[in-house]
Amino acid sequence: MVREDRLENLPGKLSDGAHDVLLLPERLDDPEFTSVVLLCEPLHLVVQADHRLAAFDTVDPKNLAGETILSMERGHRIHDQIARLCDKVGAAHATDYAGTTLDTLRLMVTCGMGISLLPALYVRSDVQRETQVVSRPLSIGAPVRELTMVWRTASPRHKAYQKIAKTISNSIAPWGLAD
């Protein structure tokens, strides 16, 4: 079975055996768990199709100065990375509203609430089919999201999970997203 849940609920459910394996957007730093990074994907800029930055093939981060950048709500690694990028380049990090999902962020960009940075796999599956928004890679210094597989270190299936993680990582590598 595949289930979705809030990030803060998942480690407890893994620990108590409700879940066997987690796929997370960040590592769990806990000796009780084994975390294997499956891929590191860059975040791509997502803007309305008629936005001035849509004209570029790649966007220099300095061109983000003065823009309002939307991010996930606090507690997500993407939120912190976008906040640091905003500080660095002089962009306004939107704090009045935040997305709870990547879809919400994409829709907020579509509605003209600002621009955002979204993970490459998400861009590939959900943004590139859109006509109202476009994605552009940053020319340098793009934040990254790690996709991580996590399981209980003491699990009797530890070796099987390692093989599954390696298979997933190898299958993603041809997409040009893995490190």
From TrEMBL:
Q: Does the keyword Transcription apply?
A: yes
Q: Hey, which family's this protein in?
A: Belongs to the LysR transcriptional regulatory family.
Listed PANTHER family:
HYDROGEN PEROXIDE-INDUCIBLE GENES ACTIVATOR, TRANSCRIPTIONAL DUAL REGULATOR HCAR-RELATED
Q: InterPro entries, per this entry?
A: LysR_subst-bd
Residue span, LysR substrate-binding domain: 3-165
Q: Name one Pfam family in it.
A: LysR_substrate
Q: Which SUPFAM superfamilies match?
A: Periplasmic binding protein-like II
The name of this protein is: LysR substrate-binding domain-containing protein
Key words of the record: DNA-binding, Transcription, Transcription regulation
Q: Which residues cross the membrane?
A: none
